[in-house]
Amino acid sequence: MAVGDVHTYFEGGLWKNRIEGGARASNTSPRRVDAVLAGRQIAKKRRVGHVVHTPQGEVETEHDYRRRP
């Protein structure tokens, strides 16, 4: 995926969303489902990709919300 994409990942006991290239998480949640929904909304609004990682850090799913020609 590219710079600007949203990554949902598990760290420090919380699920977090971070925009690729950013230094900090844009939001956190104790529940995976809430973090995934928030990450999806951010990606759709920004028209970028959304990558959801497993708690072990591997890529679980990828969705692309970029405009199509």
Uncertain residue segments: none
* Strand content bin: 35-45%
* Multimeric organization: single chain
Strands across the major sheet, in which order? 3-2-1-4-5
Largest β sheet strand count, sense and barrel closure: 5 strands, mixed
Give the class from helix and strand content and strand pairing.
alpha+beta
Mean pLDDT: 95
How many helices? The count is 1
The end-to-end span amounts to 19 Å
Describe this structure in words.
- With 69 residues, this protein is α+β, with helices and mostly antiparallel strands.
- It has one domain.
- Helices cover 22% and strands 38% of the residues.
- It has one helix at residues 32-46, and strands at 6-11, 14-19, 27-29, 49-53, 59-64.
- Strands 3-2-1-4-5 form a five-stranded mixed β-sheet, with helices on one face.
Topology:
Blueprint: E1 6-11, E2 14-19, E3 27-29, H1 32-46, E4 49-53, E5 59-64
Parallel strand pairs: 1-4
Antiparallel strand pairs: 1-2, 2-3, 4-5
Quick gist of this model?
The chain is 22% helix and 38% strand. The protein has 69 residues and is an alpha+beta fold. The chain has one domain.
List keywords for this structure.
69 residues, alpha+beta, 5-stranded mixed β-sheet, 38% strand, globular
